[in-house]
Amino acid sequence: MLTGALLILAPLFLGFAIALSNRQLMTVIHYSVEALVYFILALLGLGLGQMDGLLGQLGTMAAQVAGLVLVLLVANMAGLWLFHRWQPMHTEAAETGSRPGYGRLFLAGLKPLLSVLVGALLGYFLFPDLPMVDDVATWALMLLLFLIGLQLRNAGLSLRKLLMNRQGLGIALALVVSSLVAGLALVPVLDIPWHQSLALASGFGWYSLSGIVIGDALGPAWGGVAFLNDVLREIIALALIPLVIHARPAMAIGYGGATAMDFTLPVIRSSGGLACVPVAIASGFLLSFLSPVLMGVFLSLG
């Protein structure tokens, strides 16, 4: 298991070690990442559709997802609230002229669910015995992590400056610690070993990563639970950010997890102002690195 975890992590760090300057190549990488995400999610759904007794397990999976989402939400909000009390942060007035289309963002947040649903229907009705789905998904994930490593390295972000952003670093650490506390609290609820529960709690909103990594280690049912937990985090964050960012900016930025540097960033900027942007990027960047590392470490303990 440790070797498998290292194989998953290696492409991310390999990509981060390579500096690129060709803008056209970076554009190709951007669209390749987007296509790979939906391809991987469809493969996750395909694996779910091929699972024996899928319909009989849907109720159990729904309860597990509900438990994960609820306990993580409460723990994350508590941890981020405590950080806000210790290191309060101030926001600017909302940018009334540049609000993103919230309806469009919510629809975009539903696209991953649609990808998994299409894959599950194909696996259940058309390809119940299609071989090598797990192997293809693993290799696709490794390619995705390599490309994301390239994106992170060549996004014009200084790792030193990101690590020195005290608010962003503190928000990321508050989310990590509170998520791990929630993971331990969920052990009797999920009825799995502590290290597996901690791995489930370490997705931080990166659903395309957590669904495949957890599914590869614990089976397609748990992969589906991990995916749904993290995609629901993203959707809840879209609704939560405008409501709380002025009173508790750390809670609004932090709950988005790894998505704070990409998907939820436009909402953070329009609701909290430009001052929130570097904090959100720093927090999301650090969580994007920590998520595969922590999942790999915890799963390697099994």
TrEMBL record:
Pfam family, one: Lys_export
Membrane-crossing segments per the record: 6-21, 28-49, 61-84, 105-127, 139-156, 168-187, 207-228, 235-257, 277-301
Superkingdom of source: Bacteria
A GO MF term: L-lysine efflux transmembrane transporter activity
A single GO cellular-component term on record: plasma membrane
Keyword entries, A-Z: Membrane, Transmembrane, Transmembrane helix
Record-linked PANTHER family: LYSINE EXPORTER LYSO
Protein name: Lysine exporter LysO family protein
Organism: Marinobacter nauticus (strain ATCC 700491 / DSM 11845 / VT8)
